[in-house]
Amino acid sequence: MSTIRNLAALAVLGLAQAETIGFGPHFSLGPTSSWIREANTTLVLPEVPSPQQDRLALWPGMGTSGGDLIQALAVSFSDPSANCGATAGQWCTWASTLQGEQLGGKQVPANAGDEVNMHYKYNDETSKFDQTVSINGEVVSTLSTKSGQAQGWGTAVECQAEACDGTAAAHEYLDTTIILNAADSSFKDTLAIEEATSSGLKTSDNGKTWTVDSIKIQSHTYNL
Ligand SMILES: *[C@@H]1O[C@H](CO)[C@@H](O)[C@H](O)[C@H]1NC(C)=O
Q1: pLDDT value of position 179
Q2: Is 211 in the pocket of ligand 1 (CB under 6 A)?
Q3: What rounded mean pLDDT belongs to the chain?
Q4: Which of 64, 130, 170, 206 could be joined to 148 by an S-S link, Cβ 3.0–4.6 Å?
Q5: In angstroms, rounded to a whole number, what is the distance separating the alpha carbons of residues 126 and 41?
Q6: Of 119, 121, 144, 145, which is closest to residue 133 (Cα–Cα)?
Q7: Any signal peptide, and if so, which residues (predicted)?
Q8: Domains, the chain
Q9: Would the CB of 119 count as within 6 Å of ligand 1?
Q10: What are the beta bridge partners of residue 178?
């Protein structure tokens, strides 16, 4: 998944490149010989890092043929209230696409234990990807971006600046479904997994729809 990694390294939150950026564990798929029409997953938020420093981001992302990174975010900031009106100990979460600049929907607070559903779907009528972020079943943030076709899907644990001197807690993605435009039976062979385990990638239609019941991301301490 060099696509996702390279793109992500550019600037998740529109930051100067001089700042430290680091990546931890991941579960990454792609590129597919087809393209990804739809991806749905639910991130169960862990505790924020202690102390909360700028910035730790958890995201499932899709690198696209347009050079974009579709990446709904959950971010821990040193000052959560200045970013999304959150209180200490909370995350900020929102729909987002890195498209040169970081585009975003409404940023909202979220708690450890919340189930944050991140759903991406290609809209044939607009040729855009529609993102919907829901917390515990309630839609909180949306964004649609013209981004081309999605080529891969992967989870990331990304630190920037002071958070690269901290620890990201273990967390889990539930009920992940990735729907390709056309069957690609070798999609499973593109899996790159590090400091993470999964219940296994399954398909019931010969490689068009892929599901993973559980992706468990391990705790990671940065030393950057
Ligand atoms: C996405 O996943 C959530 C949680 O499993 C589920 O409630 C929702 O119906 C799914 N959305 C679609 C469009 O499949």
Answers
A1: 98
A2: no
A3: 93
A4: 64
A5: 23
A6: 119
A7: 1-18
A8: 3-221 (2.60.120)
A9: yes
A10: 39, 210
Write the single-letter amino acid at 172.
E
Q: Which residues contact 10 (CB under 8 A, 6 or more apart)?
A: 17, 98
What is the structure's pLDDT at 212?
98
CA distance 148 to 151: 9
CA 1 / ligand 1 centre spacing (Å):
25
Structure tokens at 144: 């649609």
Nearest Cα neighbor of 161 from 79, 45, 103, 89 is 79
Instruction: Express each pLDDT in 13-40 by its tens digit.
Output: 444 456 899 999 999 999 999 999 999 9
Written as one letter, the residue type at 22 is G
Say what the pTM is. 0.93
Does position 214 have pLDDT exceeding 90, yes or no? yes
pLDDT tens digit string along 43-56? 999 999 999 999 99
